[in-house]
Amino acid sequence: MINPQKPEGFHPIAVRGDVLRRFRLQLDGSMCIMSSKNPQRANVLMNLSLIPIDLQPIAEKVDSRQRVSEAEALQLYRSEDLNALGIIASAVREQKNGNVATYILNRYINYSNLCILSCQFCAFAAKKRDAHAFERSIDDIVVAVQGSLALGITEVHMVGGLHPTLKKDWYLTLLQRVRALDPNLIIKAFTAIEIRHLAQRIFKLSIADTLAVLRDAGLGALTGGGAEIFDAGVRDELCRGKESAEEWLDVHRIWHQMGGRSTCTMLYGHIETLEQRVDHLRQLRELQDETKGFTGFVPFAFEPQTTILAHVKPASAVEQLRNLAVSRIYLDNFDHLTAYWVSMGLPLAQVSLSYGVDDLHGTILEEKIFHMAGAKTPQEQTVETLESVIREAGREPVQRDSYYRHLPRRHLSAPTVPPAHESELVCA
Predict the structure, then answer these.
(1) How confident is the model over 55-106, as pLDDT tens digits?
(2) Which of 29, 79, 222, 388 could bridge 262 with an S-S bond, Cβ 3.0-4.6 Å?
(3) Topology of the domain covering 100-425
(4) What residues form DSSP beta bridges with 359?
(5) CA–CA separation, 277 vs 275, rounded Å?
(6) What global pTM score does this model have?
(7) At residue 158, what are phi and psi to the nearest 5 degrees?
């Protein structure tokens, strides 16, 4: 097995295809794909001789598409056999998505980092007089999105802090003007805590009524941010004052009941235990059983560098692959698992395609939250790079939309980030 830790200066395009093919055979070569009426839902049989005896009962359950328990998920987390986890997770991926790996052409917009909260783990949020505070104007955002539309984006992803002074009309005008640029553009915006902030402090409406108003103005999907770890003790220590797990879940439940769709997340690798990770996954799986409204799961490792938790050791490449594999095996009612390359880096995201991942997120074009926390990854990727990385991993690249629906391949010029407007950089 090759070392999944990326060496200094490593670039995915520089990785020899034959090395990746040999690595993939270690994980996927044990599976026999049977005929199926739907080629995207192939029946997959694992060679159990490659699975350690203690994990074979779990592998057999996955092989027969039975649900894995919380105790078994914890056993998987504690396993030292990373290859075995990759084999089992790859079987689930193959069952659900065949050999396809997707990406999306999207643009990130962080409209402001002014926030009334002071979460310990967050390096993004700011108070008005902080040197790193910023607030973008609606005109500035519209220009940025318009420039990205010319590059073929199908989604704009907008989140920000809990702004202390922006009014209801500002949010509605933002959605309406972005929506007017292209009726086919999907606006994926706001975390659950932003929705609660808007409902309680700005719109002064119920969660359902607030979501309805936002939807009418152009909101197409909710983001999955803010979930962190659901355990109450962890949240009290890391993000006191933020919504509870129940409140986060309830926002998504209401949105799903309205016919909306959203992603969900988990921020791991800080002070949480393995048991708390499993409990987080359990609550997501239970809500998905209830609503079937989550399109995909996007876990990401904590970036401690510029936070007050800088003493926390970042999650290793092995731990990130393990977390993805366990998530894929346990979340049997989720069709898609995304590797967030902004957090883990594209080389490791490429390797994760052999650990249950079927999606590499998107072109992004601009991202602030993880980079302000210390991430050293690029802020954008081209379609050509994403497709090349997917092919090198032995997968078939397919463009998707915000709901993970496949789209026809479009021939596009390489995206470039439009110059930052001065309003983006000055303090609010």
Answers:
(1) 999 999 999 999 999 999 999 999 999 999 999 999 999 999 999 999 999 9
(2) 222
(3) TIM Barrel (3.20.20)
(4) 102, 338
(5) 5
(6) 0.82
(7) -125, 120
